[in-house]
Amino acid sequence: MPGNRYDILFQPMRIGPKTAKNRFYQVPHCNGGGYRDPSAVVEMRRTKAEGGWGVIFTEQTEIHPTSEITPFIEQHLWDDRDIPALARMAEAMKSHGALAGIQLAYSGINGPNLYSREVPLAVSGGPILTFTSDPVQARTMDREDIRDLRRWFRNAFRRSQQAGFDLICLYGAHGFGILQHFLSRATNQRSDEYGGSLENRARFLREIVEDAREQTRGEVALSLRLSLHEGGAFGFSNAELRDFIEMHGDLPDIWDLANGTWEACSGTSRFKPEGAQEELVAGIKALTPKPVVGVGRFTSPDAMVRQIRAGILDFIGAARPSIADPFLPKKIEEGRIEDIRECIGCNICVSGDMTQGISRCTQNTAFMEEWRKGWHPERMHPKGASDSVLIVGAGPAGLEAAHILAKRGYAVTLADAADKMGGRVLREAALPGLSAWKRVADYRLGQLAPLPNAQLFPASRMTPEDILGFGADHVCIATGSHWRRDAVARLHLHPIPTDAAMPVFTPDDLMAGLVPQGRVTLYDDDHFYIGSVLAELLVARGCEVDYVTPAVKVAEWADNTLEQATIQRRLMELGVTLHLSKAPEAVGADGVTLGCTWTGRQSRIAADAVLMVTARRPDDALYHATRALDWQGAGIKSLKLIGDAAAPAPIAWATYAGRRYAEELDQPDRGDALSFRREIAGLLDLPALTPRD
Ligand code: ADP
Ligand code: SF4
């Protein structure tokens, strides 16, 4: 309870005309649902309100169709018809006393307008700068366009206030928002009164802040979300930001400072520690009388308190920590530090936005399922008619299933062949940069420990006979997977010729402590993190590494976790030789024959060993062997296969599978009905438009 050393985090804080109940500030973050899944997003934000956040923001909200970032799915505030969905969001955010914030965005040089088909407008015209190199350029705004833009912002201010928001965030960070494009000499090459000197480049910001105050009669608080540092010779550097804040210290009601690019701001734990932007933000508070919020993947309350006490930040900004644990503030307030579900910094949540799927979280399996499935990050449905469950395999799938089922009230037994519970996350956490993965096991083991209805049996390899003899009502098999050795994955659908004299390793071998010697060909047809992590491990063990991939770049799926460029840079800096658009066609006794994926042209590299980072085989033999016996005759009501043992995938898929199994146990069979709720756009009763005569 309060009275603890974290009290300072719970002081009410003024933000202009509003007061936040504490210093926990959920900065704007995407979720892959946006306008497509309005109720799913509303309920996701409501759980944050319930979890004690003082300020809660929407994701980026596009204010006008002349600037939209399709294919990415954010929010729209294009006309009054967008108000009801956002009003519902504001109501949910305020349901437990938080301030509701909306982030308004005009994307300028960042918006290709693939949906609206409008000509993009930018501070200075040129090719659209986004992830996808769209073959589209923006037109330079003239004075009339700037007047229009001010009016569109005014409309958005009015609509935001009408929707019930307490705070408006003006977006100028990550290279995405037009405010940054005005401020930065890289994107502002104007010679009129909006370009040139910093004073001029800041003109538009001053104008729209004034417009916002006038439009909302000063009743809505204003936040400026700016980049802490934009790199490059012409970028809006940290030094210029400091000059700008010194010149305009009073401009917003709060400064929300985020690192330059999204990749730099939201680095994974592999590359960025907690509090990574401290150096860039330290000292800024002294330049302004207004409060400062910053992010840093803060999950440790001690680190948060230190930031406040050291005078670095006034508010603890969080996106990912609030996703992984929407109840982070409440748990700190109640002194339940051990119950915090810490973000592991994997950026799987980001991948939901990048792939236009819907975000999921490795740690918080309820994320974006609050409305779709009625899942809650902290509460589970009480148990159903049956009593006991045996879970075999204590990887992320089995651990999550056990944890949720035990909290539902079942008698849970979790058995694993290994001496330590955790499965793949323990093995992977020992690899370079992945130590945070262990939190997946730590959180669940910590939650299970005090529950008298959960029994854990490490070092217990189960056989089908053990399972039948155990006497549980339900059996869940979560026995994981192992990596293939035969090059089969996406490119090769059948094994390739391999000379038995060549030592061929798999990631499992390396994680078990076996290390190849000499020159190693690493074949990556997996395309996520493990190939590059193992390349680092091999280099650290003194190997010379040839990294071979059929893709055009290293770890291409890691684009979706914002890591690809950092990974590729790291391997190049480590001296790993990259063979892109290539794949092994045959493994000989002393080398590998490579084929070019475009031309088929062959080349050969010498090798002392090969490491295959390809597909995984599900370890489902136990399941099938048990199924072949008379398990129903033994009194088992259901026998299920989940996680990697069913279909190998990233860790987040395994925790999700565990949650789903646990949630659905003893629930009525839904037959062919959808397993989640979705919203379908209502049809407008309007005639089709016809070409004019
Ligand atoms: P997932 O990602 O699906 O959770 P993991 O590979 O992380 O899968 O975990 C699977 C776990 O199952 C491993 O810890 C492994 O030791 C355990 N396991 C595999 N076969 C058996 C078995 N027959 N009896 C008990 N545990 C098993
Ligand atoms: Fe953190 Fe990973 Fe969850 Fe994102 S998906 S919030 S990075 S644990």
From TrEMBL:
The keyword Oxidoreductase applies. SUPFAM superfamilies: FAD/NAD(P)-binding domain, FMN-linked oxidoreductases. InterPro entries: Aldolase_TIM, FAD/NAD-bd_sf, NADH:flavin_oxidoreductase, OxRdtase_FMN_N. Pfam families: NAD_binding_8 (PF13450), Oxidored_FMN (PF00724). GO terms for molecular function: FMN binding; iron-sulfur cluster binding; metal ion binding; oxidoreductase activity. Residues 9-337 form the NADH:flavin oxidoreductase/NADH oxidase N-terminal domain. Keywords: Flavoprotein, FMN, Iron, Iron-sulfur, Metal-binding, Oxidoreductase. In the N-terminal section; belongs to the NADH:flavin oxidoreductase/NADH oxidase family. PANTHER family: 2,4-DIENOYL-COA REDUCTASE, 2,4-DIENOYL-COA REDUCTASE [(2E)-ENOYL-COA-PRODUCING]. This is NAD-binding protein. It comes from Paragemmobacter straminiformis.
